[in-house]
């Protein structure tokens, strides 16, 4: 054996049963995902071994026929026998087992063009089988006039026949693309990589004719004496002592040699370190030795110019379970909230209460229902618990118990705070909602009947309520439950404006509403004279949540930011964002709503103020224009991509702004320079938290 290699161990395969003899393992393979070595014997038993010593790991029965081949999958190991195909986890647990009346002598298998989700199984028979690995079912039978013994896949599927020919099969439809005779006898093994194929065979012996001429044969005696005297008997004058060759020294060391005193002690002895320094270094050394495992290190979210939506959370979370962001206050409760979402009775009860007509601004159970529904719809996307944690902070008991981070006592561990918070939830919710006990008893009788009850009994009366009935000249018209009832697929044009006001900020008179940016004019936030439908954050949020669960689709411009601010998770199938429709990723610039309205409709919007109703209507018109472009392209019109390129070309020439934009900004700057007095308005009574304007069609 080569000096660079050495034998690690020898594994004696145990018998397949107590009374059975030792059988040869014709199939052996190394696992491509784990450090395991797999064998399959003639009795259909599969065994695996791990470690340098070859310890036995698993052993299970895959079928009654000899094992022919292994394929390794992320979820387990696939083995093929003569009349069956078996898949089990690496721990030996059964996943699926497939048999068929046409499976008579299976020999080989290979992955198809669908990757590891589909395999093609063949053998010395006239039928090939296509199997869905995820479902464990036969999806297709492919007739074959040739019999195959070995299969390997690269760009194509290479299949070897018993006669020594190699067939190239298409990975999609499994048709034969090329056939050639690789060897004259049986092919023993084969491999494929990119465009190269290797095959090892048993060639037939080649016969040579006998020759009549006698060839010369020289005899050689290994014991012939070449010299009468050995070297040890030579005279001394013929023996010379030759030393080792001189060591080669690099020229750079010879030109500048390093000089030091080898026979002298150091000039001084280094002073000892202080005890405090030694203790500090000991702590640092212990920390550095332990370290933090890479999988448990803190992940820093890096924002690009497109915001948090451009961060790839899927790189760190490939599960269907959504995580909660941790950059907000009281985020230590994320683990408890995620556990409550998985706990089925807790989740269903919260959703059942949220589906009622509750409009209490400080309702902990409603916020839990909103959060649980958001985590379920997100399906792995990151979410926030902002609204629930803000509502949780309004309870005096939470402050007294030190559950808020800003009011927590020093030295209290997060584990203790989580336990206290859990007891607070369990004590608070039953005291406020007497129906909890009844629902729990009902759940213990039949959980299945409660699972979808909240969706079937969703209270939609909030959509038809008018919060400002006394105003005659309104900017809105309430929906009619008779002819305007939202259903699945209803298009809702949406634009939101958020005005968050805290009590210390409204003690003084409001000087400027910044109407050109906020769209709020004097009197809009005053319930006594406003023409708008002023609602709280809870009512606005619940309206959106009801529309979402009714199956409505939302149309708007830049809705990702709006949904993130209001903290609601809308599936992508229910969002039509015109900012994404009229966008070319290669340009790395999204077009503004005002510019698109000017270019496509020759209209100027947002001239004097920022009107949400106007923006929602414009976004709806943009979506309809997009549908016209797509329909025209399908009927032979101009491609949508060419139309978008023209929009970007005009935008670059005008700096992506309408022609009147610069003049409007100049007028605003002139008014600021003139120092005109800004009209002062008394502070509106009450605290208006949020205004959301929704336009439905």
TrEMBL record:
GO terms for biological process: nuclear-transcribed mRNA poly(A) tail shortening. InterPro entries: PAN2-PAN3_catalytic_subunit, PAN2_N, PAN2_UCH_dom, Ribonucl_H, RNaseH-like_sf, RNaseH_sf, WD40/YVTN_repeat-like_dom_sf, WD40_repeat_dom_sf. GO terms for molecular function: nucleic acid binding; poly(A)-specific ribonuclease activity. GO terms for cellular component: P-body; PAN complex. The keyword Ribonucleoprotein does not apply. It comes from the Eukaryota. Residues 663-679 have a biased composition (Basic and acidic residues). Residues 490-632 form the Exonuclease domain. Gene3D superfamilies: Cysteine proteinases, Ribonuclease H-like superfamily/Ribonuclease H, YVTN repeat-like/Quinoprotein amine dehydrogenase. Keywords: WD repeat. Residues 658-697 are annotated as: Disordered. The keyword Ribosomal protein does not apply. It holds the Pfam family UCH_1. PANTHER family: DEADENYLATION COMPLEX CATALYTIC SUBUNIT PAN2, PAN2-PAN3 DEADENYLATION COMPLEX CATALYTIC SUBUNIT PAN2. This is Exonuclease domain-containing protein.
